[in-house]
Amino acid sequence: MATAGKVIKCRAAVAWEPNAPLVIEEIEVGPPQEGEIRIKIVASSLCHTEMFHLFEGKDKRGFPTVLGHEGAGVVESVGPGVTDFKPGDKVIPVSVAHCGECRFCKSPKTNLCERSWINDHVDLMSYPTTCFTCRGQPILQFTSTGTFSEYIVINQIYVVKIHDDAPLDRVCLLGCGIPTGYGAAVNTAGVTPGSVCAVFGLGAVGLAAVMGCKNAGASRIFAVDINEQKFEKAKVFGATDFLNPKAYDKPISEVLAELTNGGVDFSIECVGNPEVMRAALESCIKGWGVSVLVGYTDVDFSARPIQLISGKTWKGTLLGGYKIKDSLPKLVNDYMTGKIMVDEFITHKMDLEQINDIVSPKSNNSIRTNLLDDLMNCFHKSLFKFHSFIF
Ligand code: NAD
Ligand code: ZN
Ligand code: ZN
């Protein structure tokens, strides 16, 4: 490629500071160094974790940054030592590393990687080095990715090569939200055929969890959200029962216990709220109930010891437990062969310039957005577009 080895100037949405609108800027993206890959981002979508960093997190470091960690693109060039990728490969950059060599990567018990940024810089929400500069200063890459930029540079341990025919404006969603929720059900919870499940929070993560429960053979899936507009879409993914906790004058765990003869077999929290985390645990049946935390927050949570003494299990998941290099290409293929839904998460498109209509406190907890530059536009017009999810 003509750009290989050179600095690329391109557009990105920069978050200069917390609680402020993003600014569309021209940024410089340096060439990839040892072990790194430069990717032309074709499509990207918005996960609630970006909203958390911008508006909700207690730690206000980690700025200026380029948000975005659900993206897909094409390799533009590779740095020295990169042999598994070449220019033109279709790829998904992911916030969860998979070096394949550390003791965690070698263990089948976890998808954590010892080399991941998350081990040392979780409050910063990025590692301290970056390929981005703007107006003469370094700009961080949110969770090592920063996909709200037309180009990124990222270490190869975070990159997955996918099928040549994969539609990038769809499979970008497999960069975080869908595998997280789906894997929370099928991997972390280990939902079993015939079981009764409850999913709390019906954003893309929760809807994917509903889809995971359904594909694992659950007989009954309760979809729980304070926004009843989400119920219709949850039905599409397999939910059978719908509960708004605000509609009851008693705790939702009691409501579920009455409806299920003591509680659900599996509950999955996809909100990021400590009270909901507790409610999800309390909604499980004693003896064997399993509750999985998916939602992210930086405040403490609590529960009564009897909840666990009585035989319940409380677990958490990062990206649904998936080791990215082994699993994401398979999930892309599962989408392409109709085993999992992806298109159903998408509602409409917007331009990059409209990003602040979506990334704002107003849209918190209600809108899911997919920043998209579809392939044709990418190569012919270099325009970004948005897909947004309003469930
Ligand atoms: P989202 O904002 O699209 O959806 C959240 C949903 O929760 C909304 O439908 C909202 O109405 C609902 N909700 C809010 N308060 C509620 C309450 N009290 N009870 C029931 N429902 C309530 O978010 P998302 O992008 O789907 O992400 C969900 C969570 O998962 C976030 O906390 C995000 O940070 C986290 N996350 C974790 C991982 C991981 O690897 N563990 C990965 C991605 C996202
Ligand atoms: Zn995410
Ligand atoms: Zn590793």
Automatic annotation (TrEMBL):
Coiled coil (residue ranges): none
Residue span, Alcohol dehydrogenase-like N-terminal domain: 34-164
Domain Alcohol dehydrogenase-like C-terminal: 204-328
Assigned GO CC terms: cytosol
GO BP: formaldehyde catabolic process
Source species, domain of life: Eukaryota
Sorted UniProt keywords: Metal-binding, Oxidoreductase, Zinc
InterPro entries hit by this protein: ADH-like_C (IPR013149), ADH-like_N (IPR013154), ADH_Zn_CS (IPR002328), GroES-like_sf (IPR011032), NAD(P)-bd_dom_sf (IPR036291)
A Pfam family of this chain: ADH_zinc_N
Entry's Gene Ontology molecular function annotations: S-(hydroxymethyl)glutathione dehydrogenase [NAD(P)+] activity; zinc ion binding
Names of required cofactors: Zn(2+)
Keyword Isomerase set for record: no
Family: Belongs to the zinc-containing alcohol dehydrogenase family.
Identification of the protein by name: Enoyl reductase (ER) domain-containing protein
Gene: LOC109100517
